[in-house]
């Protein structure tokens, strides 16, 4: 379980100080798929970067199974799979297979396990035809699929995605969604941000709605629908922002 307790994060923008996260608290339950919703600048990416230990909060604590995630970053990172938007983290001069082999090695995987994982991911994401081609000539969608495979190469317990279906066609997006269902059935914990409300509705048990670094709703989708007597996520999010709801 991930617990975020009264976390704040500020950044300096020229002469201004921008508060990206404003005393935010939330809980991500083990084995749940959680959708993260908010406008651009709401603090979603900053939150995800803190969860994966890339940046530390100015105040507050973040724990994973009761342990502060910043006290043993390497241990935490070995359990995480992370993909941030268009930051694929791939090496253009290497083939897709070589990229996946390289990242598998970084995670301390054996050659046997790397080979098996690559075959499984290549089959699942339809990458076999270009697995041994250099990444530099890939389309955006092809690169995104390899990047998702790179994120999952070490079979992590927890996966953090920022706009994971960006650049994917309908077929590839559906494959990704099927993979989420499989990971959920295996008890994996998944947190992903998206502007596509249908993805939240189809894939998630829980949702976190953010606005200006704060939470306007955290909890199950079904509870939200029941509270508002409405199942239209676009309307529900807009309504909470306009009303200025803060989740406590």
From TrEMBL:
PROSITE patterns: ABC_TRANSPORTER_1, ABC_TRANSPORTER_2. Residues 2-237 form the ABC transporter domain. Gene3D superfamilies: P-loop containing nucleotide triphosphate hydrolases. CDD domains: ABC_NatA_sodium_exporter (cd03266). It comes from the Bacteria. One of its GO terms (molecular function) is ATP hydrolysis activity. The keyword Electron transport does not apply. Keywords: ATP-binding, Nucleotide-binding, Transport. PANTHER family: ABC TRANSPORTER ATP-BINDING PROTEIN (PTHR42711), ABC TRANSPORTER ATP-BINDING PROTEIN NATA (PTHR42711:SF5). Belongs to the ABC transporter superfamily. This is ATP-binding cassette domain-containing protein.
């Amino acid at each position: 379980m991930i617990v975020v307790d009264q976390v704040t994060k500020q950044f300096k923008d020229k002469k201004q100080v921008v508060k990206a996260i404003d005393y935010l608290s939330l809980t991500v339950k083990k084995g749940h798929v959680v959708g993260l919703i908010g406008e651009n600048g709401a603090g979603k990416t900053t939150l995800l970067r803190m969860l994966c230990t890339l940046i530390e909060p100015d105040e507050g604590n973040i724990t994973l199974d009761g342990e502060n995630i910043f006290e043993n970053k390497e241990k935490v990172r070995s359990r995480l799979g992370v993909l941030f938007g268009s930051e694929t983290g791939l090496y253009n001069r290497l083939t897709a297979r070589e990229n996946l082999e390289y990242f598998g090695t970084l995670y301390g995987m054996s050659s046997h396990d790397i080979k098996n994982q690559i075959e499984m991911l290549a089959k699942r994401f339809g990458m076999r035809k270009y697995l041994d081609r250099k990444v530099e000539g890939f389309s955006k969608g092809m690169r995104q699929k390899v990047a998702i495979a790179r994120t999952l190469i070490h079979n992590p317990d927890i996966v953090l995605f920022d706009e994971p279906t960006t650049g994917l066609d309908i077929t590839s997006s559906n494959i990704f969604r099927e993979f989420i269902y499989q990971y959920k059935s295996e008890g994996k914990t998944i947190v992903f941000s998206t502007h596509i409300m249908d993805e939240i509705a189809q894939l998630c048990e829980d949702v976190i709605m953010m606005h200006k670094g704060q939470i306007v709703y955290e909890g199950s989708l079904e509870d939200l629908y029941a509270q508002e007597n409405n199942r239209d996520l676009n309307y529900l999010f807009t309504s909470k922002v306009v009303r200025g709801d803060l989740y406590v």
